[in-house]
Amino acid sequence: MSIHATAFKTLELQRVARDFGGQSALANLSLSISSGEFIALLGPSGCGKSTALNCLAGLLPLTGGRILMDGRQIDRLPPEKRGFGMVFQNYALFPHLTVEKNIAFGLEMRKVPRAEIKTRVAEAIELVQLGPHARKLPGQMSGGQQQRVAIARAVVLRPPLVLMDEPLSNLDAKLRLEMRTEIRRLHQSLGLTTIYVTHDQEEALSLADRLVVLRQGEVQQVGTPQDLHEHPANWHVADFMGYRNLLDGVVEQSRGGSATVSVAGTGITGSTKDPVAPGDAVKVGIRPEDFDIADSLTAADSTTQLEATVEVVEYQGREFAVEARTDAGQALHIRTHRRAEPGQRIIVSARHERVLVFASSMDSGTP
Ligand code: ATP
């Protein structure tokens, strides 16, 4: 196959920073990326994801730190000298050029011989399954097809690194899932190294080998999807990893990595990595799927049980999303296979090892 990525061994971001008019948009981003990795930058709007990507691409000068590729400093090189592939949310195709010509454009700029351009463009079109559309203009195609063209245009250049900025956010839900699989397939089969920006936790978890969670320009945690899912460093990361119940409480007692917290008057026990002490304000994190519903209270040392009343039930395919409220007024989000009806009294239980207790201070647990 003539399309395959240019190899490098490591790409090193060392305390990369970017300010805008004295305001920090990105601070101290340090990350070592190996060839072939798929990295997702994840975080809420305004956390600095696009800034990080644009710094990598060379579209924004750094205001601090360095970027090294195999030990060579590249952060002063203009974008074209870095030669990274870029895929944007809005596709950024040339509207007056056909699919073929859009894909060929970068190769023509690089003065690649005509015959080679022809072969590589044909191959790229084949890769993204756009054969029947090769002569169409972008405006004659769907959003998903246009995004395939944008991806083909990026990978045809055999870039050492492909940077993707929310490439699927303009597509409908079904197409998003299809394109997600497509992107992962291309990443693997072409041996790409990909950095992918998204605010969609599910997308990041399903695509990436490693995730970087950002908040207000600062790295909160770097790790594999499993790491972050099972061991979020703080409640901000937990929030992104599906801990929909982040309940405010005050520590009653804490010993040996376990803490009992008073949440709206009820004691909930969980594990903690933070040095919390009685009287500290904390957040208790529980994923909706980690709650069980029972009919009656049972004595068990390893679980916390709460009495609650069902308020809203939503059928979601194989499961129900239930919103319930404890007698003390605490709202709970639950996912369950059991049917429940609004108004029904239920016992909600959570095993201690599935409950995480986080210090509520903003930067707790930041590595
Ligand atoms: P979104 O998902 O909304 O695109 P993001 O995580 O990509 O958000 P950035 O676009 O990187 O966030 O922005 C980070 C911060 O830097 C924000 O506070 C933003 O207002 C600021 N910022 C970004 N670009 C500029 C600019 N050109 N001038 C001034 N401030 C900027």
UniProtKB/TrEMBL annotation:
Q: Which Gene3D superfamilies match?
A: 2.40.50.100, Nucleic acid-binding proteins, P-loop containing nucleotide triphosphate hydrolases
Q: Does the keyword Flavoprotein apply?
A: no
Q: What SMART domains has UniProt attached to this entry?
A: AAA
What keywords tag this UniProt record? ATP-binding, Nucleotide-binding, Transport
| ABC transporter domain ranges (all copies) | 11-241
Pfam families reported for this sequence: ABC_tran (PF00005), TOBE_2 (PF08402)
UniProt-recorded Gene Ontology molecular function terms: ATP binding
What is this protein's record name? ABC transporter ATP-binding protein
